[in-house]
Design a protein that fits this description.
With 197 residues, the chain is mainly alpha-helical. Helix content is 58%, strand content 0%. The protein is built from seven helices and no strands.
Length: 197
Amino acid sequence: MQGNTHIRLGRMLADAFGITGIERAAFLYGNIQPDLAVPSHLGEKTGHRMDGHNFGTASVRVMALFYRLRYGCEGASDYFLLGKLCHYAADCFTWAHNENYPGTLSAHVSYEHRLDKLMRTKILQPVVPDELDGLSLPEFFFRAHQLYNKYQPGLERDAFFIRMVTGQIVGGFVEENEFLPECKVAGQTVRQIDGCI
């Protein structure tokens, strides 16, 4: 996605989940930071242009960020990481960042420009399909990408999955932080302690 699309998506998510103050600023910066870090476009030991933000490489970064945020979001530094997580997740659900995209770099830029226009007009929050409900966030992410690949590639598919996946990710961290039980101890994820409420 284009940088301005990442910022717009970040603002929409911050508004939807009540992220304010310094946490909001950190979250929005995290949403754009991977595009500002030129080495992140190169990928791991591949040297292929744009390889760093394709599904294969970006999904590894998504999993690493899930791990780093396993205790939830507390403070600006965690919200920055959550913003980065949203950036890479959104790129994973952008056809031009997937291995099956047949276009050139110029076509990639054109596709992202058209996606930006669509993301400006489509404001409805998509409903999570039943088959993805109740999964851990990492499992949800990968299962959603499998489902994404079953649909015909295109802008509408991308806009739907980008909003659905990033909304679930942010909601999974932000909303659960509001209701953490007293029995949370170091080493437990939010999902592991659900039973102690």
